[in-house]
């Protein structure tokens, strides 16, 4: 038997874990900066909110269809550089070009032409970031097969993902969106958006290249699929066997419902900070500093609690606590029970609440991504196919599809409450209150349903370890069969 063929990836060094996680900075920046598109095109460019939301929703639907195709292609790819890295390298330049152009609609364009520009460029930006994100996500189950080691690796990924979003927020708040006499709320100053988005573009490009190069040496330890010539019908049947999995159905159901709430939250978060809390860019930056400080405590809490109580119980508890901490203060504010704006307790309390919420939010997403990764071996045992790319991309497909639908809702909510475009920073308090009373029940109800769906998830540590043993036994048998037939072992890339 070829020991190299059957070798497990083994212990991950700090260098590998950190460089793997570093790449998720690009997606963190992508998610955060694109969440500002509604604000930018509505408040800075002047497009109607419902037009922007419709364009964003349509692009996400197209993007969602792309992810499973890309995931399946990545799973079957055979190159000297493995299945994932060629696509990761390929993504870097297109990601930079599309992100740069997205925020620079020609000034001579009409409003309709600017809307078309938005649709085309944001579609392209979403498609090319998937060239990196889908194969990068698919690396995680292979790099960390162990039940708890996988949670640790996902912690690194989530920390850098969140760090990417937070760091560009801080750059915007303290550097590019500084208050001026004309624009006390600097995020409403058109001059700051060009340098801000250029910086975000460069950060995304750098993180992709550094992570791909930093994990290149792991290619030789990763799974390599056997040569299989399948016609279209066989390929579809292969995919169907992989996706026919109870735990995947639970994850997808939770993602469908949760994606709606997440899409509404992302689209409206900047409105809440700006108009509900009445914060200038510098104060928004202080809240992001609190979120940044919560990264490591959140990563530690995810590992500690999930080891003690298991992943399912931990993720449900984290999400419920986080939901309360996120929505509760907004409810108190609109009811007049929060400390008055400008009082000594106002900003310190907001900062503490954002810090504690971020800890639980970070922990929840670290654990839940580890749970989704655990479906890889569960599906492989039941179907005989190892398809990390397809599984992770299918979950991404559902999230993006439902978030695409949900992206319609922020614009519709803003139109329903008659929220003004190009607001000066002061909006009729009655409109703001109406906005909150629509936003809160809509986002809270769908988030709560999504959290409770995870009660039906069935993989615990014992189940995962049994699945992992079965997978390794099957890989060893395949390697021995290939060796006996005088072929290269099909399961892992040669040195």
Topology pattern, helix = H, strand = E = HHHHHHHHHHHHHHHHHHH
Largest sheet: none
Count, helices = 19
Overall pLDDT confidence = 83
State the fourth-level CATH superfamily. Answer: MFS general substrate transporter like domains
Poorly predicted runs are 1-9, 490-495
- In the CATH scheme, what's the topology name? Growth Hormone, Chain: A
Helix fraction, binned, reads over 70%
Looking at the overall shape, the CATH architecture is Up-down Bundle
Q: Any overview of this molecule?
A:
The chain has 495 residues and is mainly α. The protein has a single domain, classed as MFS general substrate transporter like domains (Growth Hormone, Chain: A), CATH 1.20.1250.20. It has 19 helices and no strands. α3 packs antiparallel against α7, α5 runs antiparallel to α17 and α15 packs across α16. The longest helix has 38 residues. The chain is globular, with a radius of gyration of 23 Å. It starts with a helix and ends in an 11-residue tail after the last helix. The N terminus and C terminus are likely disordered.
